[in-house]
Amino acid sequence: MKILSKIIIAICVFWTGNSFAQKKWTLDECVRHAMENNVSIKQIELDNQLANIDEKDAYGSFLPTLNASASHSWNIGLNTNITTGLLENQTTQFTSVGATAGIDLFRGLQNQNRFRRSKLAVISSQYQHLKMEEDVALNVVNAYLQILFNKENIKVQKQQFSADSLQLVRSQALVDAGMIPSGDLYDMKATLATGKQRIIQAEYALLVSKMSLAQLLQMEDFKAFDIADVEYEFQPNSIFFETPESIYQQAKQERTELKIAENNVKIAEKDVDIAKGARLPSLVGFYSFSSRVSYANVPNGLGGVMAPPPFFEQLDMFKGHNFGLQLNIPIFNGFSARNNIERTKVNLEKSRLALEQTELDLERNIYTAYADAKGALETYLATREMLKSREEAFRYTKERYENGMATAFDYNQSQTLLVNTQSDLLRTKYDYLFRTRILEFYFGIPIIPNETE
């Protein structure tokens, strides 16, 4: 245990040495930093980019296609003259060029529905991004409040340690005066050692909570991370003037997860429309241009070689155009179109059930959050009243101990109950703060107000 204590103290000293003149982060700064650097949020941002690219693909389906081609080849020996069609022993060069264009005139409204679906997918990705930001912000708030709790807990433990140190001096005087047995002095020393151990444990808990928040913020130099010393006083929250039902009705208009589920239903409906479009005829317009040029070393019978027509003259001579319309009517494709329609209808039903389940989950979560916040409030108030009783009980036990009317065991027992109640009060206060923040979040109040905390 002594070795562990030394290690923890060394870590805390190292932490303190690195945190000299360091920046103190506010809650607002922590949340905003997380929005810009959290890995999960960055991954969602990449998904947004992919959704935007898919939208461009869908828009591109309305545009005509245009492709060009060109080739050049050599034929040596006995081969067919492409121009005359005769077999000749010659070296022939052949150049061809071409271009094709096409456009969908009608494809069962699939292009239109794909474009509408792509726009819905972009909206859905934006909602996903917002949902991830909300989740990260809640995690940051929880981690931030945990650090504040640990900081205040250290203050409580140190204050109690100071009181125990003074009490040890008084106990020594009482032993010297013969008012209490010398064995009580050893109990007081054990109490002081226990208090020191509590301080070490509290400092270690603070260290861990700082590391957790720093890592959540994706900070490389997390050893030098610390937050501003802000004290949140207990205040009754106006959110309790609302009923769980009114909070739920407000959340149905605001909550991101519900908008995601609703948008997924719309996407599934477009998938059904796209699948149905495969059973309709499609009409495509097309146009192509082609031409060719050939060069052959053909003897002219006089010991010379016949010269081919010039390049551009041949291009004009051999040019050709091809255009028209192509109508495709699906008749039978192994039930693939019908099965795809049925598949999309099943997915649509699943999306509708997911929306219904999301509404039920949201309602349950809000009622649970309301009960948790209400319970946290009542627990805090009860603990605050308990602390008053513990303080009076400890004061009474302390007086009796100093007058030799109580044992060191009675003193230590009363003190332990007091310290535990002080820690419980801090814990219930920050639990109340976090629970009410969640409830406000469901009601549509931003996690971080416009003004800095």
UniProtKB/TrEMBL annotation:
SUPFAM superfamilies with a match to the protein in the record: Outer membrane efflux proteins (OEP)
Subcellular location field: Cell outer membrane
Protein keywords: Cell outer membrane, Coiled coil, Membrane, Signal, Transmembrane, Transmembrane beta strand, Transport
InterPro entries tied to this protein: OMP_efflux, TolC-like
Signal peptide location: 1-21
Domain of life: Bacteria
S-adenosyl-L-methionine in keyword set: no
Major site of localization recorded for this protein: membrane
Family to which the UniProt record says this protein belongs: Belongs to the outer membrane factor (OMF) (TC 1.B.17) family.
Name of the protein in its database record: TolC family protein
Organism: Paenimyroides aestuarii
